[in-house]
Design a protein that fits this description.
Rossmann fold; 417 residues; single chain; eight-stranded mixed sheet; alpha/beta; N-(1-d-carboxylethyl)-l-norvaline Dehydrogenase, domain 2; 15 helices
Length: 417
């Protein structure tokens, strides 16, 4: 079957850049459940700030829609929906299963379904393919094929875009592997690498983020130790980095929808086969506790003020993105509020309605002069750096501004009024 039309299911950080890449050679249906998202994209607006309006205006071969009927004539389906965890830190596959069911109902003979959503090894074959077979009444490898190509998008990174990142591809058999490879090879400039099985591709993705999580956990623990020793930890990192094979990780809050989630997926799978992971969950526990540790450091700063008022700047899970999913800034804010501290929060990149709906916190919209004793910059958005003088003006007399890393490690004041 000649591939003419590709449907991308889910138009977030991963799906939208893929849809734009695929349109070079194929007709593309960009499908998302959110009618709001579709309306924005049809007006050439990307609220994730990953794709410019200039580029969106050139997407003549992409049809953005929330209408399921538009999926009927598609030859290939690429599923890029979120795979979060629930309150018990277990995989939440509801969106993945729902998208798979939708695709199954529209899948035709000779079709291909490719997953980019992060999962544990075996999820595609054990969970997704049975749903596809049930809803399509077709048989894997006889009537349709399945592929897995793990996403490696780094939100907010203007250099490591889709065309600059090596792409792994896998499939349910060798015939479909060639087809999946050709789809990506025609669409992106970066290197496309074939791996031997879907499980290998799933495993590669999940250990990429797990390794990063564990490295940050190690650095976080070291930063706590050296703070107690009253030694500047960033000076130590700088010295250690002079060795050729030292990995340049830094301490920080680990949130978001990848690094702070993926180790739980691997731990879930590990437990299901009878092995209780030791290091994975220890790293997760430490990183999840860092917002509490940081709140204790901030509370110590308040002893110098009467009836102090704090401003927390930065609510997204990382710099220069509007995404607030699993952001540890909110854990820190709630920890401070439990101690009856007056706390305001500010972030001009995030959607304030979403913040309230998800966290019941109302960010302030404007910065008022002479209003705060302490300002803590948790997330270094570019816009915050540009507003350095404005931020200084909102301090009360003798007020101080702390950069997150400085308060966390060296207690160094970066600005004082």
């Amino acid at each position: 079957m000649k591939i003419k039309k590709i449907a991308v299911i889910g138009l977030g950080y991963v799906g939208l850049p893929l849809a734009i890449a695929f349109q070079k050679n194929f007709e593309v249906i960009g499908y998302d459940l959110s009618k709001k998202r579709i309306k924005e994209l049809t007006k050439n607006i990307d609220t994730t700030y990953e794709i410019s309006s200039k580029i969106l205006k050139k997407t003549k071969k992409i049809f953005f829609t929330s209408n399921q009927n538009s999926l009927r004539d598609c030859d290939v389906f690429v599923i890029t929906v979120p795979t979060p965890i629930n309150k018990k830190n277990l995989p939440d596959l509801r969106s993945l299963k729902s998208a798979t069911k939708l695709v199954g109902k529209n899948l035709k003979k000779g079709g291909i379904v490719i997953y980019e959503s992060t999962t544990y090894p075996g999820c595609t074959e054990e969970v997704c393919i049975p749903i596809l077979e049930k809803n399509s009444k077709l048989k894997i490898n006889e009537d349709f094929g399945c592929g897995y190509s793990p996403e490696r998008i780094n939100p907010g990174d203007k250099k490591k875009k889709l065309d600059k990142i090596n792409k792994l591809v896998s499939a349910s058999n060798q015939i479909y592997l060639i087809k999946v490879y050709q789809i990506y090879r025609k669409s992106i400039k970066s290197k496309v690498i074939k791996v031997n099985s879907i499980k290998i591709a799933e495993g590669a993705k999940i250990i990429e983020n797990t390794q990063r999580d564990l490295n940050i956990a190690l650095i976080n623990e070291l930063s706590i130790i050296f703070k107690k020793l009253n030694i500047n930890f960033f000076d130590i990192l700088s010295a250690a980095s002079t060795k050729w094979n030292f990995l340049p990780f830094e301490p920080g809050l680990v949130g978001g929808h990848c690094i702070g989630v993926d180790p739980y997926y691997l731990a879930f799978k590990s437990k299901s086969i009878g092995y209780e992971p030791k290091i994975l969950l220890a790293g997760r526990k430490l990183n999840d506790s860092m917002s509490y540790y940081l709140s204790k450091l901030i509370l110590k700063l308040l002893n110098n003020f009467n009836n102090p008022k704090i401003l927390i700047m930065g609510l997204s899970f990382k710099e220069n993105v509007p995404d607030i999913r699993n952001s540890k800034s909110f854990d820190l804010i709630n920890n401070l509020k439990k101690q009856k501290v007056k706390v305001d929060c500010y972030d001009n990149m995030v959607n304030h309605k979403d913040v309230y709906q998800q966290y019941k916190i109302r960010p302030i919209k404007n910065l008022k002069n002479n209003n705060y004793n302490i300002v803590v910059i948790l997330v270094k958005h570019r816009s915050f750096i540009l507003k350095k003088n404005k931020i200084r003006s909102i301090l009360k007399k003798n007020g101080i501004i702390y950069d997150f890393k400085n308060i966390f490690n060296t207690n160094k004041i970066i600005l004082k009024k």
